[in-house]
Amino acid sequence: MRKPGCGALDIIRIDPTDALVVIDMQRDFGEDTGALYVKGVHGEVLMEEVIHHCVELTKKPFGLKEGSRDVHCRNHVEEKIFGIHVRKGTRGAEPLPELKDFYEALGCKVLVKGGEWAVISHAVSTSPHWAAHLALLRRVGIKRIFLCGLAYTHCVGDSAIAYAQQGFEVYIVRDATRSVAPPYGDPELMKKKLALFGVAEIVAADLGID
What we know:
six-stranded parallel beta sheet, 7 helices
């Protein structure tokens, strides 16, 4: 696994075979007034820095840029665990203002998940567009997937594993994500799970981002 913060001479160079996937940067998760604000744990960066790094990542010359949104139907199974959040038609389901232009530019390509009430929709693989998304990745020759967004312990981590299971080289930009705090989130457990699937963790500086 790559060691984060290796210096300017060891910056990861982005090329057309790389894809960026921005996971669930939505008001309910990223605003402190949101229904399921991702508070983080000790040692993680502030939400402002997570948002900044996500925005800067979208400016990098990735061969493909994608995003996911969690949009729950009424009585979604996750409401029994976390309470009502990102419900369809609510303000909380909207993208964060800083990422609004990014999501709008994607249009119908956004990987929307959460429409099936009985399916826990953490991973992008639960989106009905997952198969078409994979076909596009393979068609344009994507080899590496870089992920950022919310939250590390849930949607980002589970999505990273989904990509790894499909044979991609996967990286999580660790200071462009944040964890759900215990008891609902366990960043150490997620870190161990990611290692089992060969997912590497880097920091924004490894991609030349301050």
